[in-house]
Design brief:
- The structure is a single chain.
- Helices cover about 25% and strands about 30% of the residues.
- The chain is α+β, with helices and mostly antiparallel strands.
- It folds into 2 domains: about 210 residues, Cystine-knot cytokines (Cystine Knot Cytokines, subunit B, Ribbon), CATH 2.10.90.10; about 200 residues, Jelly Rolls, CATH 2.60.120.
- The protein has a 7-stranded antiparallel beta sheet, sandwiched between helices. Strands 4, 6, 7, 9 and 10 form a 5-stranded antiparallel beta sheet that branches.
- The radius of gyration is 27 Å and the shape is elongated.
- Its main location: secreted.
- It comes from Elysia marginata.
- This is Bone morphogenetic protein 7.
- InterPro entries: Cystine-knot_cytokine, TGF-b_C, TGF-b_propeptide, TGF-beta-rel, TGFb_CS.
Length: about 425
């Protein structure tokens, strides 16, 4: 079908049979799932590298921020991930890779703007690094710096928002009053030390408000994506109705020394073009299966030294597969991928630990029943095969419908990334 899936990548990596912890679990064609076996160290490295490239990463990230400062962002992203996982488990996502909110209730509980979420392929929460930037570090709790160096220019910013938490201030000082919270971007003007503030967004808030406040930062985030060198940080002002300015801390806004689960963070909603996603897949295909590298499709692209081990092992799984496959019609079978066993630990991949990829196998022989989901062309090909089996083969059993999976992981800046990946789960099989 011309589509590379994660199941395709990991299946070709299987080369040796063993009884230790396995990376892959599949059908034994008796209604049970069994481990396929373990991989050698080099095989795991190869599989890991291919999966990273499909994700748009070229090495496993090494998060560098203090985990305390990302607790609130991680909690938000985990809640979002869990709501999307519920949708995936119910099969609602089908082949669409975009991130959708299943209900207004979910959106309200997470404080989401459906207009920003709908149509995104990637959601990223950025950590505040203002304390490490010289011109920002002395303006404590008024300034923010979010590193956009990991964001590719191929990612279009659909929306961005700064999330800050406000406590109720003690006493009656601000109760009943209205205040304006303004978000500014630092901009360079002439001399390298000469900086000005440009207003990005404003929010009207009551003095006794408590909870997460969202300030729009879409315009400046789009600018940072295209021109990272223009990123000089953000500045926050709190003004009363007469224009008097207050320190954010005095207004109840939680600063860097506040609770870990109430630290400020920025969320970016990104869209990735289908062409970019396909280029990633083509890159892996060319490197692992490409003819220019002298590798034929009959070779194992991950290792040359394991082929004799597979044949010598005389695997019970292999023999049961060969014996029983011919008695089964085309259908979907279990295939579980264990991410932890191939080296995606919790320091990088937050969730999931693994996933059900499934695969298609079985015969497409005459007669093709309705349950075999055969195309009209497959039916015609089957009839011609019966007349001339030497010239025309039987149709093949292949996926007819795919679904995406969602991964939650850290990048090098310890930003928490939620990303959807297309064509990762086989939803249905049929004869083609």
């Amino acid at each position: 079908m011309g589509v590379i899936t994660l199941a395709t990548v990991v299946l070709v990596s299987f080369a040796c049979q063993a009884s230790a912890t396995s990376s892959f679990y599949t059908d034994n064609y008796r209604g049970q799932s069994i481990p396929m076996g373990t991989m050698e160290h080099q095989q795991k490295k190869n599989v890991q590298q291919d999966l990273l490239e499909l994700m748009g990463l070229y090495s496993k990230p090494k998060p560098r921020a203090n985990r305390r400062h990302i607790q609130s962002a991680k909690n938000f992203m985990r809640d979002l991930y869990d709501s999307l996982k519920d949708m995936d488990d119910q099969g609602q996502a089908a082949e669409d890779t975009h991130i959708h909110i299943s209900s207004r209730i979910n959106a309200s509980a997470l404080g989401l703007d459906p207009g920003k979420v709908e149509g995104s392929d990637v959601i990223v929460s950025f950590v505040n690094y203002a304390r490490k930037v010289p011109h920002l570090r002395h303006k404590r709790d008024r300034t923010f710096y979010f590193d956009f160096s990991e964001v590719s220019v191929t990612e279009q910013v659909m929306g961005a928002e700064l999330r800050i938490y406000k406590e109720v201030t003690p006493g009656l000082r601000f109760r009943g009053q209205s205040f304006k919270i303004q978000l500014y971007a630092f901009k360079q003007r002439g001399n390298s030390r000469d900086k000005v503030l440009r207003l990005e967004s404003s929010l009207e808030v009551k003095g006794d408000t408590k909870g997460w406040l969202l300030l729009d930062a879409t315009k400046i985030a789009s600018e940072w994506t295209l021109f990272p060198y223009r990123n000089m940080g953000l500045y926050l002002k709190v003004l009363d109705s007469k224009g008097k300015e207050y320190h954010p801390r005095d207004f109840g806004i939680v600063g860097r020394k506040g609770p870990a689960d109430k630290q400020s963070f920025l969320v970016g909603y990104m869209a990735v073009s289908p062409q970019v996603l396909e280029r990633r897949a083509r890159s892996v295909r060319a490197r692992r299966w490409g003819v220019p590298d002298g590798i034929s499709y009959s070779d194992n692209p991950y290792t040359e030294y394991s082929r004799h081990r597979r044949s010598a092992a005389g695997s019970a799984w292999g023999s049961s597969y060969e014996n029983l496959r011919s008695h089964k019609n085309c259908q979907k079978h279990n295939l579980y991928i264990n991410f932890r066993d191939i080296g995606f630990d919790h320091k990088f991949l937050i969730a999931p630990d693994g996933y059900k990829a499934f695969y298609c196998a079985g015969d497409c022989s005459f007669p093709l029943g309705i349950h075999m989901n055969a195309t009209n062309h497959a039916i015609v090909q089957t009839l011609v095969h019966l007349i001339n089996p030497d010239d025309v083969p039987n149709p093949c059993c292949a996926p007819t419908k795919f679904g995406p999976i969602t991964l939650l992981y850290y990048d090098d800046n310890t930003s928490v990334v939620l990303q959807r990946f297309r064509n990762m789960i086989v939803r249905a099989c049929g004869c083609h």
